[in-house]
Amino acid sequence: MNHQTCQLGPNGPTVPALGIGTWAWGDTLFWGYGKTYGREQVRAAFLATIAQGVCFFDTAEVYGMGTSETLLGQFMRETGHPAQIATKYGPLPWRLTAQAVADALTASLTRLQQERITLYQVHWPFTFLMSQQTLMQALADEVQRGRIEAIGVSNYSATQMRDAHRYLAERGVPLAVNQVRYSLLDRQIETNGILTTAQTLSITLLAYSPLAQGLLTGRYRPDGENQPIGARRANPRFQPAKLRPLQPLLDAMAAIGQQHDRTIAQVALNWLIAQGVLPIPGAKTAAQATENVGALGWSLTAAEVAELDRISQAVR
Questions:
Q1: How many Cα atoms sit within 13 Å of 213 on the Cβ side?
Q2: Which of 77, 60, 78 has its CA nearest to residue 69?
Q3: What is the helix (H) or strand (E) element at residue 305, kind and residue range?
Q4: What is the pTM of this model?
Q5: How would you write 77-127 as a 3-class SS string?
């Protein structure tokens, strides 16, 4: 059982130091849910995660148009295993008022079969006709109502994060989280101010696509033996010409993994934990969930972190 934990924000809820992302649970367009895997496989991923002492799942109202939340709610009820849930509000153009925020949360809670959730995040920073201030006030209301424990944002720039933090501070509520793309292959947050701003304001960063949609698992090689399915097949990063420059990094990760009896993917996730962020890799199967959780309970050495840092800078 794993007891490595992370606190969301300066005084927010404590969750495992790694979560499981559930974008693929019900998503037919990008991930092909219902074709090569389905409810049985993702239920097994849920059970495997819980069995290893990790109970933090990240979802969103738009994942599978509500299917991901619905599945999580069903799995918690069917198995009797409660979980800490992070979900997301989509600031759509027709959502104009604070009531729209409350209604979206109600719909998510209904699908999840929960009265409250650990973390409610704004999925992207577009505000359209609802101001950022109105949105943050509405979220602060929900913290005070007790329906959400902590407030987060996603894909916010350093400036947008500061603004959200300021509006919430006026209500005495911290901004706990910014969920951003971050991995050994996607390191923009280190140079665009997001990482340093988050550290300054004690905002926890959740890293989505921490395995770069599979590029950091070692599964996809330039010889083309393994091909991604679904929308990833069209992604130029999976073409042989783009995969070849990754080999020095993957080889180094494999060698480091051997020293710790861990996989390439577990090394990639542990590197993120070493940066002080919380990775949320996806899992479509029990095997993937088990491998993800294996990133906990051990640590790369400072020299290994530095080596991966150096090699990955060269391949980007």
A1: 18
A2: 60
A3: helix 302-315
A4: 0.94
A5: HHHCCCCEEEEEECCCCCCCCHHHHHHHHHHHHHHHCCCCEEEEEECCCCC
Active site residues: 63
CB contact set of 190 (below 8 Å; sequence gap of 6+): none
3-class DSSP state of 96:
coil
Q: List the beta strands (DSSP E) in 184-314.
A: 204-208, 278-279
* Beta strand pairing call for 56-58 and 20-21: parallel
Instruction: Provide the residue-wise pLDDT of the chain in tens; the chain has 316 residues.
Output: 557 999 999 999 999 999 999 999 999 988 899 999 999 999 999 999 999 999 999 999 999 999 999 999 999 999 999 999 999 999 998 999 999 999 999 999 999 999 999 999 999 997 778 899 999 999 999 999 999 999 999 999 999 999 999 999 999 999 999 999 999 999 999 999 999 999 999 999 999 999 998 899 988 676 666 665 665 555 656 667 677 889 999 999 999 999 999 999 999 999 999 999 999 999 999 999 999 999 999 999 999 999 999 999 988 6
Q: Are strands 14-16 and 5-7 parallel, antiparallel or unpaired?
A: antiparallel
Q: What does residue 61 show for φ and ψ, rounded to 5 degrees?
A: -65, -30
Q: Which long-range contacts (CB under 8 A, 24 or more apart) does 159-167 make?
A: 159/193, 160/125, 160/132, 161/194, 161/197, 161/198, 161/201, 161/203, 162/197, 162/201, 163/132, 164/122, 164/132, 164/136, 165/201, 165/203, 167/132, 167/133, 167/136, 167/137
Burial of 98 (0-12, 13-18, 19+ CB in 10 A): middle
What are 231's strand-pairing partners? Answer: none
Rg (CA), the chain: 19
Q: What share of the chain is helix, strand, coil (3-state, %, to 5)?
A: 45, 15, 35
Tell me the C-alpha to C-alpha distance, in Å, between residue 157 and each of 7, 86, 122, 154, 160.
22, 20, 13, 9, 5
Q: How far apart are CA 141 and CA 144, in angstroms?
A: 5
